[in-house]
Amino acid sequence: MKDTPTVAIHQPNHLPWLGYFRKVARADVFVFLDDAQFSKGSYINRVRVLAGGRARWLTVPVSASLGQPICRTMIAPGDWRGAHRERLRAYYRDAPHFDTVFPVLAALVDAAAADTIADANIGMIRSLADRLGLAPEFRLSSQMGCADGAGDARLAALVAAAGGRIYLSGGGGAKYQDETTFARSGIALAYNDTQFPAYDQGGAPFVPGLSVVDALFRIGFAATARLIRGQ
Predict the structure, then answer these.
(1) Which of 5, 41, 117, 174 is deepest in the core (most CB within 10 A)?
(2) pLDDT digits (tens, 9 = 90+) for 89-122
(3) pLDDT, average across residues 121-149
(4) What is the C-alpha separation between 6 and 121, in angstroms, rounded?
(5) Are strands 54-59 and 46-51 parallel, antiparallel or unpaired?
(6) Residue 106 CB burial class (10 angstroms; 0-12, 13-18, ≥19)
């Protein structure tokens, strides 16, 4: 690991967007904040994809109660895998890289864990990261012994526990994060770049912020990896 390792922390989102994977690409250690509270209507169990030029949701149904952590949020009964496969096939069958990308994504969805949404998402993110050539050390916040504290104090504790000297925050973190909280632990702040050029989405007006699967179907694995790395 580098002398000044960079740590990124994020909830385990469902098939997340390009900016999430840019965080993975820039981190030496990526911590899945799997013990954060599950938030209904968030990107934990759903993500947007494109169908006929319109953004539509891909959703994994879950059984959640108020205050429940993501790592204990169970996937509800039902064939969400089959629904994902059929929708991705219907939405992207005419995309340039469908024939190479769909079998990979279908296998990834089929192999996803069946119990918690955290386990399912983490497995898919790690598999996609590997396929894209992204190789930080992955860790789980629930296993790092930093349960105390909240907000920036807990984030700083997680970065320190991961051996980090730089915390890679989200692009909007400068608006709300207190640099002094991190500085007390000898941690500097950096911010993720979430600006991406438009790519061809089949001739429709470009829709940003979609799942990484949209880019994969449109431009393929190699070009998506370059996009994530800012190349």
Answers:
(1) 117
(2) 999 999 999 999 999 999 999 999 889 999 999 9
(3) 93
(4) 22
(5) antiparallel
(6) middle
